[in-house]
Amino acid sequence: MSRPKGPILFDLDEDTPRAAPSEAPPVPDPDLPPPPEGRAMQTVAALAARRPSRLARLFWGLLGTLLTLAISLAAWNFAAGLVASVPLLGYVVSGLLIALVLVLLAIALRELAAFARLGRIDALHRAADAALADDDLPAARRLTDDLVKLYAGREDTRWGRERLAEQRGDQFDARTLLALTEAELLTPLDAAALRQVEGAARQVAAVTALVPLALADVVVALSANLRMIRRIAEIYGGRSGTLGSLRLTRAVLTHLVATGAVAVGDDVISSVAGGSLLSKISRRFGEGVVNGALTARVGVAAMEVCRPLPFSPGKRPKVRRLLTTALSGLFPS
């Protein structure tokens, strides 16, 4: 191919805006890992939100029933055989079995009471939604009375209950009465719940960033979120047992998955890490920020579920601010 002779004219369009060098996208570095995606918390949420099929529930129900019958029959035959062969030892074993049955009954009653407490909180929340939707002042007053009874034995709400008793007579519509009830009764409880969320987010972020073991971040995220949700429920008066905590956790994470709240963008990392060099060059530190953000979102959702009153406009905690406070000083900028 022959080279053209003479000058070559390049037609440059000066009217087309050109990006400044500072606005140019970064050149991808093949040595750096891909950006974090919060896989630990996404895995936890997906596992918790997954609902087993009817066939699976039927299988596990039948299997549990058969195992219970087999264990009970084996224990009965064992105790009866001991009574026949060694009467004294047989009576001792029979007493131990009776004690075990009583303990299991006590545990079952505690779980039922926990479900009842969670149901009571849920009923209060639905009543508040209905009172706000209909602007029903008598319903709001009844709801306020129920909340005062719910927190009557708690010292951390004593001052708020006294202030509420002084001011509730001046409120003449449902919205202002419930706003006053929220401000006086739930403000110290909200502060305690936020401290639990910040602690859980900090723990998940630190372990993800500093512990390089496989699946360690998933295990820590799962345990920290379970513990956080249970403590938030206890703060708001819905103390839950083991089964209640699992059910509550599943409800919270199912809501997060359904609303797409388990996805976190890069703006969260930049706003929280403050442009930290470590968050840009280290995948572990970036994943720590993302997992901490997702834990904070789970915590805010747990507060909404466990709280007897819905958040007033502007009162709902901001995840970004929450995470900034939780991770302050953890990721140096």
TrEMBL record:
**Pfam families per record:** DUF697
Q: Where is this region: Disordered?
A: 1-39
Which chain regions cross the lipid bilayer? 58-76, 88-109
Which organism is the protein's source? Pelagivirga sediminicola
Does Cell inner membrane appear among the keywords?
yes
Location in the cell reads: Cell inner membrane
The record's annotation in InterPro entries points to: DUF697 (IPR021147), UPF0283 (IPR006507)
Q: Which GO terms describe its cellular component?
A: plasma membrane
- According to Swiss-Prot or TrEMBL, what is its membrane topology? Multi-pass membrane protein
Return the protein name. Answer: TIGR01620 family protein
- Similarity remark: Belongs to the UPF0283 family.
